[in-house]
Fold:
Amino acid sequence: MTKLEAVIQPGKLDAVKEALLAIGIDGLTVLEARGHGRQKGHTEFYRGREYSVDLLPKTKLEIVLRDEAVDGAVKAILGASQTGKIGDGKIFLSRIDEAIRIRNEERGNEAL
Amino acid sequence: MNILPGNPPLYRRARWCCVLLLLFFGLAASAQTVSPQQLADLQKQVAEARGNADNAWMLVSSALVLMMTGPGLALFYGGLVRKKNVLSTMMQSFAMMAVVTILWGLVGFSLAFGPGNSFIGNFQHLFLHGVGAAPDPDYAATIPLQTFMIYQLMFAIITPALISGAFAERMKFSGMLLFLVLWSLVIYTPMAHMVWGKGGLLNASLGGRFPCLDFAGGTVVHITSGVSALVCALYLGKRKDFPAEQFRPHSVVLSFVGACMLWVGWFGFNAGSALSAGSLATSAFVATHFAAAAAALSWMAAEWMLKGYPSALGGISGAVAGLVAITPAAGFVGPMSALVIGLVAGVFCYVMVAKVKERFGYDDSLDAFGVHGAGGTLGAILTGVFASHYVNPIFKDAQGNVTGSGLLDGNPHQLLNQATGVVIAWVLAAVGTVALLKIVDLTVGLRVTEEQETKGLDLTQHGEEGYSLE
Structure:
């Protein structure tokens, strides 16, 4: 099993969700996050005072997948969220040792 | 509906004509012989109707002015602070609705409007003694003195609440309460008495020594609160870690709603200050609206040119600045003068807030001085320029002829009277506030601890949070 974490632009969430659903991935966890990578922040003005805001709103997805589904999921996310500009976000993959469904205690791939 | 078959015979029509003629002459005769008693009754009824109309408007105005404090000002200020201080900021306004009300009933109204000396009232109306259905013709001849009292109370509530913008996010609730209670008594009541009270030094309509035109509180409300706000900001010092990214307003949306409520409530504030429902109220209403609109535009335009964006916060701040500046002038100037006052006020207050504050580095957190102190001073002076006897014939010479009101109305001397009012308001507010802050500082204390400031005043002063997730 593999955990896929993707930090994407908040505006791309719907497109990514639809792309994942289209290849049969129907479970995911979404977090509202703030952060920045190489992307610089922006400047806001309130009554003339400048505030440089470097932590920007982002959306983070967490999905745990069967290993054979990972490539398809990565492709779907790239396809739906890539604009080629700085700030598009990142995808991280990591191994998962075990998954347990709380309702009936199924384990491993069965629990996904 | 004609149920008769054909026309009635001629004699019957003639008979009806006679009856009508008799009736007509009978009525005319009785009108000529109306008794003095009947006439007096009629006059009394007309006066009563007029009084009821005025009273209705004044009660609505009173409610509108209360709405300016809560929720208007509470929302306006609440949105501008950080999330962790939203309730404490709103409570600073709300607390005045409760505390000043009680104070006003016990002693405040008497000190402000009792017939005392040139500087302060007396104890004649202590515990609202003698404040009932009978009007006081010196203040408002057509409404109960009790209506006048409750209307003036709403002004006494919002004025100290305005100051809270300067010490937001760092003042102890207990210290704030004590300070603003003392402030109401030591600074607000004498200033209100001097400008509006019987025998007041600056009273323009009841023969004060320096007749200062202040229709709805440019000096009494905005200069006193604004200047005191500056003193508070200097005395308390900056907020911890200020300035940094986190000091952005947490919800311009709340501020937006609050500011629009202030705009609406201000009609009660300014048009209500006519103390009647006649054409003077209309004139003040119109002037108020034009100034607010012009100032909203001019602040936004200044921001657009200098920063590249016409911001929402800029628009609403400009509107409030225009409303502040037109307050002393509302019942003395026409709509086009109001427009000019608004245009100037929007740019002037923007410069005070964005440039002057930055230059001197004081942390007037929500710009109580930059908007109310600066806008109030500007408005008081411009009132002396634009006041017109066509709008409100306030000054008369010894023979009873109406004379000019302001500079452009052929009365340049009025500028001096306006300046006198401004200087007295500035000095009273500045000196009084320093003294009161010192007293509170030495007794209950002014500032929260650093740790409390980090945690937020909502949690540490009130034991609750404005927003909790589920």
Remarks:
- The interface with chain B takes residues 44-49, 51-55 of chain A (CB under 8 Å).
- Chain A has a mean pLDDT of 91.
- Residues 2-111 of chain A form a domain with the Alpha-Beta Plaits fold (CATH 3.30.70.120).
- The helical segments of chain A are 13-22, 70-81.
